[in-house]
Each structure stands twice: as structure tokens, then as C-alpha cells.
């Protein structure tokens, strides 16, 4: 296990699903975790479970994000780790897609990253230390599905943002990387599988869906001292799903 004792971590979308797995794994490694989420009830429960703190945050609201960062900095003086994980993944075919659909998913998945990363990077630059991990998806640059164009566009956007941002902040002791989960068993995914009649775990070579803690482990690695020379990189965590198998010849 990586050692993160006394590190101050902020996790967006940390109340449920993958975010909760990230929170639990960071806390297990010793970090003090700030759970920032729009879901107050689950956010407070998760905070209590790991001895962390809950902050109400709607990532689409820039002022809200700035205030939350300011409140954390006033109390803890620093933010060492940011896991910007919030995202939604409604399925919508292009010909059914409205401008509202487009704007909503972009606002949460992509602008939501900008809203929280901007004030956090300002603090990390001053500290001359920081670890940022963004949650993208295998749908960002490897896979796709009908109804996933909008979601895929945001997740590809995260990868592009991450690469340039990592270069902008490398000289300030800040690393910026991303994780690309495959199918992870969360409430969000369960809803999607119901409507997709997907084969779920069957298409994964490991024959199981990912667990939130599988993603948490990768986030912990990027947050650790051991990963201090890695920046601008993305790690796929998918039980082998995207690996093309060599055909029998
Ligand atoms: P989830 O729906 O289970 O949890 C999402 C969390 O984000 C919830 O706690 C929710 O309250 C919070 N949230 C939603 N809108 C918010 C907002 N405006 N402001 C603040 N918080 C908000 O989702 P999940 O499956 O855990 O997915 C988490 C991330 O992982 C997303 O970015 C998703 O795209 C990505 N991802 C998930 C999978 C998967 O299979 N589950 C695969 C690849 C990538």
C-alpha cells in the first residue's frame, strides 16, 4: 500500500461509485479526504465512514468550486491531491441529441474539471507540490458505442486537457495524470446496463466487472511519492477488455 499519511485530498463525485472507491483507498493509505459532491446524504455518510469531511459541491458552478477550495485551504492550509472524478454518462443517439443534452454533459464532465482544477492548481503551484488525477474512460480514446458520442467527446477532452495541463505545471512539482476505467460496478453503470442489454462481465477477459477500489488503487499510485516522475500519462484499468486478442492462425 502506498503511504499518504497527512496528505490532504479532495475528491469530486466522492460520495458514490468510483469516487467513493477512490476516497476509501486514499483514506486507507492515510490521507485526510475531502468528499466534494452534490449528493449531501451519501457524501456525509462516506465522510463519516473514512473520517473525512464533506463539502457540498456542484462542479458546474465555478463560484461554488472556488469557495469549497478556499474553505479547505483555510482549514487545512494545503491540498496535496485532487481526484477530479465527477461524470455522468447518459446514452443518447446523435439524431435524438438536443443542445441541452450536449451542454449538460459537457458542463458536468469537462467544464466541471476546469472549475475545480483551476483554484486547486493555483494552490498547488504555491506549495510547489501536487498530484492531480482525472477520471477519463476507455470510451475517451479506445472504445465507443452507439449513444456514446457525447460522453466519448468529453472523456477524450479530459485526456487532451490532461496532457497540456501536465506540461504547464510540471515545473511546479505538480503531476497531472488520468485513469481510464473499463466497466466498473456502480449505480451509474447498473442503470446503463439495464437499458443496453449488455453482456456485462462476459465481455471482460477477467470475467468480472471492475470494483471502485480497483480504480482507487491506481489513483493512489499516481498520488504516491513512487509516481513522482510520472506526468501527462493515462492508465487503463479494465480487466483486459480493450486488448485485441491475437487471432488463431
Ligand atoms: P456514479 O453515478 O455512480 O457516481 C457519480 C458521483 O458524481 C455521484 O456521487 C454524484 O452525486 C456525483 N455528481 C453528479 N453530478 C455532480 C455534480 N454536478 N457535482 C458534483 N457531484 C456530482 O458514477 P460512477 O460510475 O462512479 O462514475 C464516476 C466517474 O467514472 C465518471 O467520471 C464516469 O464517467 C467514470 N467512468 C465510470 C465507468 C463505470 O463503468 N462506472 C467507466 C468509465 C469511466
Descriptive notes:
It contains seven helices and seven strands. Strand 5 (130-135), helix 5 (149-169) and strand 6 form a beta-alpha-beta unit. It has helices at residues 17-28, 40-50, 62-76, 99-127, 149-169, 187-196, 212-223; strands at 8-12, 32-37, 53-56, 81-84, 130-135, 174-181, 234-237. It has a seven-stranded parallel beta sheet, sandwiched between helices. It binds nicotinamide-adenine-dinucleotide (NAD).
Briefly say what this structure is.
By secondary structure, this protein is of the alpha/beta class. It has helices at residues 17-28, 40-50, 62-76, 99-127, 149-169, 187-196, 212-223; strands at 8-12, 32-37, 53-56, 81-84, 130-135, 174-181, 234-237. Residues 12-13, 15-19, 37-39, 57-60, 85-89, 108, 135, 137, 181, 183-184, 186-189 line the site of nicotinamide-adenine-dinucleotide.
- Helix percentage range: 40-55%
On the 0 to 100 scale, the average pLDDT is 95
Computed over alpha carbons, the radius of gyration is 17 Å
Strand order of the largest sheet: 3-2-1-4-5-6-7
Structural class of the helix and strand makeup?
Answer: alpha/beta
Bound molecules: nicotinamide-adenine-dinucleotide
Largest sheet: 7 strands, parallel
| Helix and strand pattern | EHEHEHEHEHEHHE
Principal-axis shape equals globular
The count of helical stretches stands at 7
Poorly predicted segments? none
| End-to-end distance | 42 Å
Count of individual beta strands: 7
What share of residues are in beta strands? 5-15%
Amino acid at each position: 500500500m502506498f503511504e499518504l499519511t497527512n496528505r490532504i485530498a479532495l475528491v469530486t463525485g466522492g460520495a458514490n461509485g468510483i469516487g467513493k472507491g477512490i476516497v476509501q483507498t486514499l483514506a486507507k493509505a492515510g490521507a485526510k479526504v475531502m468528499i466534494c459532491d452534490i449528493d449531501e446524504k451519501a457524501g456525509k455518510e462516506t465522510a463519516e465512514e473514512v473520517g473525512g469531511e464533506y463539502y457540498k459541491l456542484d462542479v458546474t458552478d465555478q463560484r461554488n468550486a472556488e469557495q469549497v477550495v478556499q474553505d479547505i485551504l483555510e482549514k487545512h492550509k494545503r491540498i496535496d491531491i485532487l481526484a477530479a472524478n465527477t461524470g455522468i454518462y447518459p446514452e443518447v443517439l446523435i439524431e435524438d441529441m438536443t443542445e441541452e443534452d450536449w451542454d449538460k454533459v459537457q458542463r458536468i464532465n469537462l467544464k466541471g474539471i476546469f472549475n475545480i482544477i483551476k483554484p486547486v492548481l493555483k494552490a498547488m503551484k504555491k506549495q510547489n507540490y501536487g498530484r492531480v488525477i482525472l477520471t477519463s474512460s476507455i470510451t475517451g480514446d479506445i472504445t465507443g458505442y452507439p449513444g456514446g458520442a457525447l460522453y466519448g467527446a468529453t472523456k477524450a477532452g479530459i485526456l487532451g486537457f490532461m496532457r497540456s495541463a501536465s506540461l504547464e505545471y510540471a515545473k511546479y512539482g505538480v503531476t497531472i495524470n488520468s485513469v481510464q476505467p473499463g466497466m466498473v460496478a456502480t449505480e451509474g453503470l447498473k442503470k446503463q446496463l439495464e437499458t443496453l442489454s449488455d453482456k456485462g462481465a462476459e465481455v471482460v477477459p477477467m470475467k468480472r466487472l471492475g470494483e471502485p477500489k480497483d480504480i482507487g488503487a491506481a489513483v493512489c499510485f499516481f498520488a504516491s511519492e513512487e509516481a513522482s516522475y510520472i506526468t501527462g500519462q493515462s492508465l487503463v484499468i479494465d480487466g483486459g477488455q480493450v486488448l485485441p486478442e491475437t487471432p488463431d492462425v
